[in-house]
Description:
By secondary structure, this protein is of the alpha+beta class.
Amino acid sequence: MTITRRDLIKASLAAGTAFSVPSVLRAQTAATAERTVRMVMGSFPRTFDPMFTTDDTAQSHGLAIYDTLFALDSKFMVQPQMVQKWGISDDKKTYTFELRDGLSWHDGTAITAADCVASIRRWAQVQSGGQLMMERTKDISKKDERTFSIALKEPLGLLPEILASAPPLFIMREKDANRPATEQVTTNIGSGPFKFNEALSKPGASITYDRNEQYVPRRETADGFAGGKVVNVDRVVWENIADQQTAYAALQAGEIDFIQTPSTDLLPAIESDPNLQLEILDKGGRILLLRMNCLQKPFDNVKARQALLHLVDQEAFLQASFGNPKYFRTITSLFGNDTPYSNDENTEWFKRGGDPEGAKRLLKEAGYAGEKIVLLQPTDWTESSNASQLLAAELRKIGANVELAPSDWGGIVERRAKMGSVEEGGWSLFITDHSNYGTTQPHTNIDMVANGKKGWYGWPTSDEYESLRAKWVEVDTLEERQALAGKMQKVYWDFVGTVYLGAYVQPSARRKSLTGLIGMPAYLPMWNMQRVSG
């Protein structure tokens, strides 16, 4: 009988094995104040500039230390955040925005309209919605110290929604935002509800945030990413505990308060502990997906990408990654499960069990000649690591020369930005995920863009699809968008910019003494949460 890693974990949990916790963490915990929260996030960031990388953890870092002009509430409606009031001209071409009172940088200086103008321009270099906006923009200019405007060539009714979209438009100091988006901002000075504590942050080990006592929240109740960002704790520490068993032991012992993405193997043990609570913060769920380097062989050939689409047996990938069917389901629509735009256009490729013979034929038709395929494998994300190993095995069955490249997620974030060949340190494939909600926003969702090197990692190109995507902001009714979604999906599943591996929900784990966590797609706000006694 083969003993699997899952079997070993279950056995050790059943036997009450005491997992080891680093002594440095024990020492830190003994001195932890009651109003400090310790968290283990889904990954540990190597890059803190949330415009330089789309990594979800870097975006959560951005939510802590920066602020935004607008934000989405829990119903995904746009609400003003740094903006006090705004208006639009009679011809619908000029938007004017005025900043609210009480805004200042962590260094004590005042936030100005010039900071906002520079930040919008930097963000628009890399964010798909921003790129779309800039194609229709005549000018972005400061009017006075607290007022700026966006002048358009043509009306763009979704402009406030674009400014509130993800990845967020974080407002930075003008001198930071003047740096090209392709160069990292290395300071961590924002205006948000938390300050980055550089003195206590330890590279590769922990990140510390302190409550920004000078921050003035909006008066509204916290609601999604919007409303009053009231901080109820003095300090938040992100601990880098890559080993899931060690993280679980620390959670059980009260030495940490929260694990964002606990391994599926640990969920039954967490659920049975009276002091712990599983909580699904992103109730819409996420989509596990495969990205291919469309600039390099063999996946520069559309038939090689189609081979992957036909090869995938979603149920097998979901079982390998998540184990318990109550947390996953299959998915065929580019526009997610159960969204207003979900449709069945061009989904004949989906077969239970996959179609390995069809995939083998397509790979041969692509002219594949045994080139090395490098598949990036995250060692600190169990579910993606399992899916990567299964994908490598399935590709080898149809004659592909696959090499797994294991590293932590931070290493994958760095390597996936390389456009070159595998011989030049590049890559061929990596597995990631995005929120199901994001599929309803093709005008801003970076994963749904197909504009080549200007787009997201993998860099697929389809002019036909992009011309359809550009119309998303031009149509007004739900019915028109639904019809457009069908046309976009038909084209997308032909050129295959992404391969879906399945949909799932990810429970987070917390001690019951930690309450008030805000549930939204992808990112984790740290305001509103608090520790309670008992």
